[in-house]
Structure formats: C-alpha cells, structure tokens
Design brief:
alpha/beta; Rossmann fold; 4-stranded parallel beta sheet; binds threonylcarbamoyladenylate; binds magnesium ion
Length: about 350
C-alpha cells in the first residue's frame, strides 16, 4: 500500500471499487473492458448480469506486467513463455490450465483460464494498483468487452457510456475514461490449455497479432478450433453485430446496388472503391474504408455505431481481401456480424 502515491487518484479510486466487488470499465489497447475482481465470484456475476451474457462463457483475466503467471495457472508450457515474451504486454490472450484456487466463476466453470497482460498505460496502472491493494499482491481483473452480449465492442469511453446508461446512472458501473482504443478489435486468443496432453496451440480468435506472427514464434502453424465444440462466445456464429442489419457484398456486385435497394430504404455502403466510380442513387450513401487492415480495424466499430444512429435500413460492407493474414480478424468479425442477420 505504501506505493499508492505513485498512482493518479482516479486509478486508486477505481482499484478500490474493484476491491469492493464493484464493476469498473477501463480502456485497453484493443477495446474497452468491463472489469471486476477475477477472484470474487459475486463481482464476476455482476459482469454476466450487466452484459446479459450466459454464465458458461468464460472471461479473460487481465494481469499487470509484473504479475506471476503461475499464480493463475496450474502449468505453463514453453509455448506460453515464448508467446508472452514476444507479445506481452499486448493484444494476445492465452488460454492455460487454471490453478485450482481460482474460482471457476471467471472461467465459466471450465478448468482453463484466459489471461492477458494489456499494454494500455491506464489499464496497466489500474491492474498494478489493484494487485497492490490485494493482501497477497496478486490480483487480476476479469474483463469482457464492455458491451451488451453480442453487440459491437466499445473503442471509446463514450461507447461504454452509451452501452450501459442505466448501470452507470444507478452506480452499478463506473467508467475509467481514457483515449480511444488504438487497435480497435479484440485480442488474438490462443488456446494452450491442452499442450500437456499433446495438443498444440489452437488459434481460437484471430486478432491484431496474426496467424503468421504466432507461427513464427511457435515454430508451427496454430490449429483452427474444432467447430463442433464452440467454447468462445466470440466464436458463436453471430456476434459483434450493430443494430442495423449488416450484409457483405462482393466488389463485382457493387454496380447492382441501385437495383437491390428498395425505393423506400436508405442503405449505407462501406467500400474500398473510388466513390465517384460507383453508381449514384439517392437511396445509397457510400463511405470509404481504409485499404490498410490495421486502420480499418481501428475505425470499424466506431463507424458501425455511428451508422446505427443514422436511420439506415441496411449496412452493406464490401467483402474484404481473402487469404491475407492481415485481414483474417476483420473477416472473422464482419462475417459474424453479418451472420446475426441471416
Ligand atoms: O481484447 C480483448 O480480449 C478484450 C479486452 C477487454 O481485453 N476482451 C474481450 O473479452 O474481448 P470477451 O469476453 O468479449 O471475449 C473473450 C473471449 C470470449 O469469447 C471467451 O469465450 C474467451 O475469450 N475465453 C476466455 N476464457 C476462455 C477459456 N478458458 N476457454 C476458452 N475461451 C475462453
Ligand atoms: Mg466481447
């Protein structure tokens, strides 16, 4: 406790709320998180309640850079150390065998646990301050993305405020505000929980850290998840969706849009094409998106939220480059967003 003077008063206040079993939303470099003390099942239950998330969907535990990973896990394979060395702090979550003393509320009843050390300075300060307040100096913050279940993740404090107005007004949730999330999509998730049983790394959720970056460190290609056993809520077919129906459209079909849009509807069209070359129609509003995957990821959730306020009947999204590592995560998110309306 003697080091608490190192922290901003807003950080200490937020850390104390977490220690009290309260919810605190905070910025990370990927998206904003909805945090609670990972070792307090009552606090963790409040996350599920606020999100409207089924209780068997496990949460990611966020830990500070100097944390002892062994505290949270029962075994740490070599691959985990290699990936942590390469990508922590940063947008990578590792699924590892859970230590028995960690309540299984946080892992949705599973005996594995998701762990991430974020790089965002505000997140790190909060995590350090929280761990310091714990009697044993070890503390982790369980935090899913700070959005209602199935909705678009928040990349700014304003998004969190609009997502949970009632919870914030009634004091159930407070928000530690920071800048906009630099990356803009959720962390890459790698499952290493069955390495000791001879099962290699599985890429559960693609993200900013790409498959080939992982392969370079692992020395082999991570496997893809067994589709028949979905264990990741973000891996449900429909997820990450705006309120306005979203549909993907091939580049070659953009010219047909004027004949597709009903006369009484207004559609937003996200495209890479030069807007001047596209057929104009009073029913179509074109928006240019970046041809750089990282910039696209940074902007997409904020753009979808903004379009949700504009009264469009549909958001048509030009299909993304396929078979390109850099676009795998965005393909994943937009396909799941579209699947919510199929
Ligand atoms: O970037 C991120 O990961 C953000 C920020 C806040 O850190 N968090 C995030 O959390 O995206 P959430 O709950 O929206 O997605 C976490 C995913 C879920 O799909 C969950 O099922 C999976 O991680 N997960 C967590 N623990 C797991 C476990 N033990 N086994 C399998 N999947 C797990
Ligand atoms: Mg989420």
């Amino acid at each position: 406790m003697s080091d608490t003077y190192l922290f901003d008063s807003s950080i200490i206040e937020a850390a104390k709320k977490l220690l009290n079993g309260e919810l605190v939303a905070f910025p990370t470099e990927t998206v904003y998180g909805l945090g609670a003390d990972a070792e307090n099942p009552d606090a963790v239950a409040k996350i599920y309640q606020a999100k409207g998330r089924p209780a068997n969907h496990p949460l990611i535990v966020h830990i500070p850079p100097d944390a002892n990973i062994q505290y949270w896990t029962s075994s740490v394979p070599e691959e985990a150390f290699a990936l942590m060395e390469a990508f922590w702090p940063g947008p990578l979550t590792l699924i590892l065998p859970k230590a028995d003393h960690i309540p299984s509320a946080v892992s949705g009843g599973q005996n594995s646990i998701g762990i991430r050390c974020p790089s965002h300075p505000v997140a790190q300060q909060l995590l350090k301050a929280f761990a310091m307040l714990k009697t044993n100096g070890q503390g982790g913050v369980a935090a899913p993305s700070a959005n209602k279940f199935g909705h678009v993740s928040p990349t700014s404090a304003a998004h969190v405020l609009s997502e949970f107005p009632e919870e914030i007004a009634s004091g159930i949730l407070s928000v530690l505000e920071g800048d906009d999330s630099e990356i803009g999509i959720e962390s890459t998730i790698v499952d290493l929980s069955r390495v000791k049983d001879g099962v290699g790394a599985v890429l559960l959720r693609p993200g900013h850290i790409t498959r080939s970056q992982l392969a370079e460190v692992l020395g082999y290609q991570p496997a893809s998840p067994d589709k028949s056993a979905p264990r990741v809520s973000g891996s449900l077919k429909a997820h990450y969706a705006p309120n306005t129906p979203l549909q993907l459209i091939k580049e070659a079909d953009l010219d047909r849009l004027p004949s597709l849009v009903p006369a009484i509807e207004k559609w937003a069209v996200l495209t890479f094409a030069d807007i001047d070359t596209l057929p104009s129609s009073s029913n179509l509003n074109y928006f240019n998106v970046s041809t750089n995957a990282q910039d696209y990821a940074h902007d997409i959730y904020a753009l979808l939220r903004q379009l949700d306020t504009k009264g469009f009947q549909r958001i048509m999204v030009q299909s993304l480059p396929q078979d390109d590592d850099n676009w795998e995560a965005l393909n994943d998110r937009l396909q799941r967003a579209a699947a919510a309306f199929e």
